[in-house]
Amino acid sequence: MKILTKDSLKKLENIKLFVLDIDGTFSLSGKLFPGSIEFANTVLNANKKFVFLTNNSNKSIDDYLLEFNNAGLSINADQIFTAGIETAEYLIEKFGPKKIYLVGNKAIKQVFENIGHKVVDSEEPDIVVVTFDTTLNYEKLAKACNYVSKGKLFVLTNPDLNCPSKDGPIPDTGAIASIITKATGKEPDIIFGKPDPLILEMIMQKNNVKKEETCVIGDRLYTDILLGKRAGVLTILVLTGEAKESDIKNIKPDIIAQEIGEISKYI
Questions:
Q1: Which of 11, 187, 192, 260 has the highest count of CB atoms within 10 angstroms of its CB?
Q2: In angstroms, rounded to a whole number, what is the distance separating the alpha carbons of residues 160 and 174?
Q3: Backbone angles phi, psi at 62, to 5 degrees
């Protein structure tokens, strides 16, 4: 590992909660990296905790539980936080139940409905929400542009431009939303998920830990590492996903690891 800031290893020893990204950090296209199980076991054996925080908004918690279980890792629902679910809950808390035009997959539509929103297609919505969408087509984009141009609230579940996959990067929420912005001239009103520190503060509160007891681990500088920096917690960049060491300029992690298993010996 490379230590980029003073006392980082000492701080790492005092961490009680590790907040992990999933895609590109712990797994790729549902397949765990070789050191992922070792890391999870090491954390648990040290009587510490880990949770997952992902900007991926096209899967439910049940989807992730099944995916991890099939990969050989048993975790609980309270260990998974997604930007899609947190966005739906935030909109309920701030505005109450609303009619939502949702650019997204079937699973995230079900999440919004379960939380109390009405997902509409032909009916005029109150809010347009853009998420990662593998069923994206021209009709969806055209409708979203039409509603946004009429002044409907324009919300992104996360700002990611691409999502890592086994075949290479694929368009994510930020890239999809950029088409709507280019077509309408309107920027999003709300961008949720990482790197907004609100979501991390909620996780720390639920797990009863302080900033100095929390560490964010991820593969993206502008979401994972920036989240940790904005929240004032320890950050570790792993090089198994998007970022390369040469990309590190303005946003600097405290520690760089080749892969997540490398961290285990320092916990």
A1: 260
A2: 5
A3: -60, -35
Amino acid 227 reads L
> In what helix (H) or strand (E) does residue 216 lie, and over which residues does it extend?
strand 214-218
CA distance 37 to 72: 8
- Whether pTM exceeds 0.85: no
Q: How do residues 50-91 score in pLDDT, each as one tens digit?
A: 999 998 877 788 889 999 999 999 999 999 999 998 899 889
Opening angle at CA 225, ends 219 and 229, nearest 5: 170
Are 103 and 130 in contact by the 8 Å Cβ rule? The answer is: yes
Cα–Cα distance for residue pair 177/158, rounded to 1 Å: 10
Candidates 38, 54, 72, 97; CA nearest to 216 is 54
Return the closest-CA partner of residue 101 out of 135, 70, 143.
143
Q: Is the peptide bond before 169 cis (omega within 30 degrees of 0)?
A: no
Q: In what order do the strands lie in the sheet with 214-218?
A: 2-3, 255-257, 234-238, 214-218, 17-20, 49-54, 80-82
Report the candidate in 202, 256, 249, 247 with the shortest Cα–Cα distance to residue 25.
256
pLDDT digits (tens, 9 = 90+) for 141-187: 999 999 999 999 999 999 888 887 778 888 999 999 999 999 999 99
